[in-house]
Structure formats: C-alpha cells, structure tokens
Specification:
- By secondary structure, this protein is an all-beta fold.
- It contains one helix and 26 strands.
- The protein has a nine-stranded antiparallel sheet, with no helix packed on it.
C-alpha cells in the first residue's frame, strides 16, 4: 500500500497504481514564508470534489459533490441532444453543515447529502470493486446506478505538488459500464440503449493552490463495434511532475503528457481543438449546451465555471498501437477559475 505522507513531511508524489493510505492529516501545511498553518485555517484549506458524468442514448447527466472548506456544493443536471438543458439543480451549504458528509479517503467512502427535496448518496470502494449512487435532485431528476470499479479498471491516480507547499491527488477513469442504471425525470423513466451507456469518474482532493484554474475534458463511450473508449484531460491545474492526462481503449490506459486547448475563449461555442504535440490524441469538440455557476463569497472564495456538453470526433494513437478514429461521441469540456 502506498502512503500519501511519509517521514519528514515528504509527499510521495507519483502515478499510484495501488491502494493508498490517505494520511492527509499528517501533512504540515506551510505558508509563503514556510510558517506552519494550523487549526481551522488548515482545515479550510483542504478541498475535495467528486464528479460523475453519464452518457445514455441522447441523454447526458453530470453531478458532483464539492467541499471547499468554507462552502459545500452539490449539483446535478440533465441534457438531451437536440433539446438542450432539461433540468439543473444546485444546493449550497456552509462547510461543516450536517447536510453533507463527505469522508476524506479517495479509495473508500460513502458521501451523503440531504437538503430539502435533494438527496444524494455515493458509495465507492476499490477493495470491494464497486461504485454506486442514488441521487434525487429537487424531487424531479432521479439517477440510480451501480458500476464495477476497482484498480483493475486501470484508473489514472496521480499525486502532484501544485506549489512548493501544497499537493493535489486526482483519480480519473473512463468509461465505466453499468450493471444497473435508472434515470427518471418528473417520474417518467428515460429510455436509452443500455449497452452503450457509460460513465466517467473524477475525484480530486488535497491542499489546492489559493488560486486554481483549469480547462478540462472528459468523455466515455461504447462505439458501434463495441470498443469502449474514454478520456480525461486537463490543462493549468497540475502541470508539475506527473501528467494527469490519459485515454482508455477497452480498459487499456495510455498516459498523455501535456494537452493543448485551442478555442475561442470569447466565443466558446465555436469548435475546440484539444491535442498533444506528439499526435497521441487529436480531438475536435463541438459544444451544444452548458451548465454554469458562479460563487462570490467575498475575498475568501470565488469560483466561476462553464461546463459544456457536446460531441467529440478525433483519434487516439497509443504508442506501438493502431490509430483509433471515432466521431459523434458525447462528452464534456469545462473552463474553471477559482480563488479558494
């Protein structure tokens, strides 16, 4: 088993393909002048979030739980191709609220949230090989699913410094194929071809930079020939030490170094070009809709993001393998800026 924090406050950076002892409380957090940060200030500096995205026929669903120390956030949305954003839900509460229980352990946890007509539960355990969830957003959108998920799925698990005194761990995997997936909107069950349904998983946590920005891309799909593909890519957030970019073909993972985003930030509904210098990955993303949010909690917490849904076409070219081309694959791209 790998250990997050070793002796003498050493963070054991790297790509971690084994179970992880999440002893984050042993970390000595220091400020710009290397003075130790303790107590409530240290607790509030720790952030974590868990995002799950689902594609099922013409439907795309995204939901997340977010712990920003001072503020917690739970959101979910439903998008249908050709009809746009059908529903979105957003709930916020103060950090430490009894409305949310978000344990700090990326390998095994049960997240619970309950507020008004919104409830959420996510269970994840690598040792048991499960990822399951049961969500009810505002009493209208209900999503229930169960997915086989363990280290055998070859997730990308990367531990990086994000400045000299802080670290971030991220775990990504795509696509996950369901044992069970039920989606309903306003008590009406939504129909889709179950054999092509897929999910993307994304968990990050640690002592993130005070100011954090990223571009992000994720998708998962089962192609007409039943090849399962997925990708999870990012720029800006952690481009130190170990890359957190990868794509998967039938659970075979290929890591990608640095990813380049070429798009019009003033008109992001124009196609995006997402690629790397080596030609390992070459994607064109066409946005069709978005879910966005803004938090302005004074000087301590500010976030603004736009998560776009749309379609990808392009190719993967694993080293020593054949080039795989695809089109009309549904997925997500996001721009995010935060001070937290």
């Amino acid at each position: 088993m790998a250990k997050l924090i070793g002796d003498n406050n050493k963070v054991n950076y790297g790509c971690i393909d084994e179970a992880l002892e999440w002893n984050y409380q042993d970390f000595i957090l220091r400020d710009f002048f290397n003075r130790e940060i303790k107590g409530g200030k240290k607790r509030r500096a720790y952030h974590q979030f868990n995002y799950i995205g689902i594609t099922a026929g013409d439907y795309m669903i995204g939901f997340a739980v977010v712990d920003l120390g001072l503020i917690n956030n739970v959101f979910g949305f439903l998008y249908k191709k050709g009809e746009g954003l059908l529903f979105e839900s957003d709930d916020k509460c103060l950090g430490g609220s009894r409305k949310m229980d978000f344990p700090r352990n990326p390998d095994a946890y049960t997240v619970k949230f309950n507020s008004g007509k919104t409830s959420l539960r996510i269970d994840k355990s690598h040792s048991k090989g499960i990822l399951s969830f049961n969500c009810n957003f505002k009493g209208r959108l209900k999503v229930k699913g169960s997915f086989p998920y363990s280290l055998k799925n070859n997730p990308l698990r990367v531990l990086n410094p994000n400045d000299p005194n802080r670290f971030t761990f991220t775990e990504k995997c795509s696509p996950l194929k369901p044992n069970q997936l039920e989606i309903s909107m306003d008590r009406k069950k939504l129909d889709y071809e179950s054999q092509t349904a897929a999910a993307i998983y994304d968990w990050s946590g640690g002592y993130l930079r005070r100011e954090t920005n990223w571009y992000w891309t994720a998708f998962g799909a089962v192609l007409p020939n039943r090849t399962a593909i997925g990708a999870n890519l990012a720029a800006f957030v952690n481009e130190t030490y170990f890359s957190e970019n990868a794509f998967w073909i039938n659970n075979s993972r290929t890591r990608v170094s640095r990813v380049i985003y070429d798009f019009d930030v003033m008109d992001p509904y124009k196609p995006w070009h997402v690629y790397d210098e080596a030609g390992t990955i070459d994607l064109v993303f066409t946005p069709e809709g978005e879910r966005n949010d803004k938090i302005n909690a004074g000087p301590l917490v500010k976030t603004i993001f736009r998560q776009f849904v749309g379609t990808f076409e392009g190719s993967f070219h694993p080293e020593g393998g054949n080039k795989l081309s695809f089109k009309d694959v549904k997925g997500f791209c996001e721009t995010h800026r935060a001070i937290w």
